[in-house]
TrEMBL record:
It holds the Pfam family Peptidase_M20. One of its GO terms (molecular function) is metal ion binding. Its cofactor is Zn(2+). Belongs to the peptidase M20A family. SUPFAM superfamilies: Bacterial exopeptidase dimerisation domain (SSF55031), Zn-dependent exopeptidases (SSF53187). It comes from the Bacteria. This is Succinyl-diaminopimelate desuccinylase. It comes from Companilactobacillus paralimentarius DSM 13238 = JCM 10415. The keyword Hydrolase applies. PANTHER family: ACETYLORNITHINE DEACETYLASE, PEPTIDASE M20 DIMERISATION DOMAIN-CONTAINING PROTEIN. Residues 197-303 form the Peptidase M20 dimerisation domain. Keywords: Hydrolase, Metal-binding, Zinc.
Length: 406
């Protein structure tokens, strides 16, 4: 494709309003695009109007490289505050504005175009499986379904097109200084980066069941909030031990209590209280171990106090993702960037999650890199991607694939 065609594909995707829903319109657009270039396509239904897409080019019985990105975007927050409207892509001063431009329709479009151009290249003899998912922004629901159905089982490596850059070198340095990007002491030459690892997450709710009573007679009731606070304090002790373990790229586990609710009126002892917790996890202290220890803590508290009635509800478990920073695959990634950009990039660890968590959970041996043209404007009003970044990443994806199958 020429430059205008490459840009047109991204504009078309940004115009499609897929705020955590209606991803079928993206799947159908990509299906038509791929089929025009003779690429085999499969649609995988998640729900009405929500379809994952799998496109494959297969030239031999060798290893398969995966390309993946998600079709959904987050809410626009306030349409009136967007300079040009959230779904009206505008190209201004080298930037492309629009919801999803950074996270991650630029990455999705870039991977799709790379697949098409590789398929059209008579000298390319590799195997690539392109996977576009629904609902990444609301719990990786599309990738979870595909992983359970075996779509990642035959992959040997995976490129995730999520945003991995910052909008300036200064901001990259600030992200590093604030611990939001872990570099293990390395210094950046550029604002461009790739992630060889990202944290996983365990999200859960702890519910305390009590007994309502008039506040003048609290002894005849069971205060669900008191019991939840007792658990909160016990959990805080557990977290102090949890964060001692450290990963060389991802840093420490990060636990956060994010929601707490109890009581409906001031003269009634609450019979129900709940808290929601999200823990960002590392490979050295895995999700399953944390979940088992939390459940064991709750069981012991319930057994030790007959007035305690705590319940653990797991909301989601997304595994941490890590590929050895000195592995052949990550070196190949660095070499691909150097060939296209002419500079050395950092391969670093990131705090946020991606669909790779679900695919790695199904295929433990999968090498993964997160590499995409977006930046820290993701999820913000007036989200943007640099036009040059988008175009260069298409070439980075193609170079990476060619090196992988060389």
């Amino acid at each position: 494709m020429d430059k205008a065609q490459r840009l047109s594909v991204l504009d078309d995707l940004i115009k499609l309003e897929t705020v955590n829903d209606r991803e079928e319109i993206v799947a159908n657009y990509l299906k038509d695009l791929f089929e025009k270039h003779g690429i085999n396509v499969e649609l995988n239904k998640y729900a009405d109007n929500r379809y994952n897409l799998i496109a494959t080019i297969k030239n031999n019985d060798g290893p398969i490289l995966g390309f993946t990105g998600h079709e959904d975007v987050v809410a626009t927050v306030d349409d009136s505050k967007w300079n040009y409207g959230p779904f009206n892509p505008k190209h201004i001063d080298g930037k492309i504005f629009g919801r999803g431009s950074s996270d991650m329709k630029s990455g999705l479009a870039g991977l799709a175009i790379a697949l098409i151009e590789l398929n059209d290249d008579p000298n390319f003899n590799g195997n690539i499986k392109f996977i576009a998912t629904v609902g990444e922004e609301v719990g990786e629901i599309g990738s979870e379904k595909l992983a359970k159905e075996g779509y990642a089982d035959d992959l040997s490596a995976l490129v995730v097109g999520e945003p991995s850059n910052s909008s300036s070198r200064l901001i990259m340095e600030q992200l590093i200084d604030n611990g939001l990007v872990e570099t293990n002491g390395a210094k950046p030459e550029t604002r461009i980066a790739a992630f060889c690892a990202h944290k996983g997450s365990v999200t859960y709710k702890v519910v305390s069941h009590g007994k309502a009573a008039h506040s003048s007679m609290p002894e005849v009731g069971i205060n669900a909030l008191d019991n939840l606070i007792a658990y909160y304090n016990k959990q805080a002790e557990y977290f102090n031990n949890l964060v001692v373990t450290e990963d060389d790229v991802l840093g420490t586990t990060k636990p956060s209590v994010t929601v707490m609710n109890a009581g409906k009126q001031e003269n009634t002892i609450p019979d129900y209280a709940e808290m929601t917790v999200k823990i960002r996890t590392i490979p050295e202290y895995g999700n399953d171990k944390i979940i088992a220890e939390l459940k064991d803590m709750i069981d012991k508290m319930n057994q030790e106090n007959p007035r305690m009635n705590l319940e653990f509800q797991l909301k989601s478990s997304n595994w941490p993702v890590k590929t050895d920073i000195n592995s052949d695959f990550i070196q190949l990634v660095r070499d691909s960037y150097k060939d296209v950009l002419g500079v050395n990039i950092l391969t670093v660890g990131a705090p946020g999650g991606t669909d790779a968590s679900k695919f790695v959970q199904a295929n433990h041996d999968l090498d993964v890199v997160v590499a995409g043209p977006g930046n820290e404007s993701a999820h913000q009003i007036n989200e943007f991607v640099f036009e040059d970044d988008y175009l260069q990443y298409i070439d980075i994806y193609k170079t990476l694939a060619k090196k992988y199958f060389a």
